[in-house]
User: Fold this.
Amino acid sequence: MRVRLLWPGRTKERWIAEGIAKFEAMINPFAKLEIKEVRDAGGGTPEALKKEGDALLKASDGGFILLDERGAQTDSLGFAAMLKDRAKVEFVIGGAYGVSDEVRERASGSVALSKMTLTHEMARLLLMEQIYRAMMINTGRGYHH
Assistant:
C-alpha cells in the first residue's frame, strides 16, 4: 500500500515532529509512506488560502481524502475498513486556517478526526497514529483493543 500525506509547512513543535517520525518508522514496514510538505502561505486571508490550496492541489496525485472538521465521523475500525485493500490513499491536512474552497471541492471525500478543534500539527500526529492503528487492525495485530 502507498500512503501519501500532504500538508502546508513544516511541523514546528519538536515533540509533535518526534511523534510523527516515530509513527513513520512504525508504518513503513506495512506501507510506503510519503509526506509532502508544501509551502505555508501564512495568514488566513483568502489570497493566502488560495495560494496554499493551489500548492496542495498541484502536489496531489488526485482523489485525496481531506481531513476536515466537517468531514465524516468514524471510529478506528471504520477508518481501517476505509483503508483495507487499497493500493494507495492520499490525505490532505490544511494549515492553521484550514483549506480553500477549491481544495474542499476537489476532495474525493473528507473525514474528521474529532468533533473538537485540533491544531493542524496535532492533526498530523493523530492521523499518523490512526493510519498505524488501521494497519494493525487490518493485519490482525494486537495494537488496537
The longest strand covers residues 65-73. The first helix runs from residue 14 to 27.
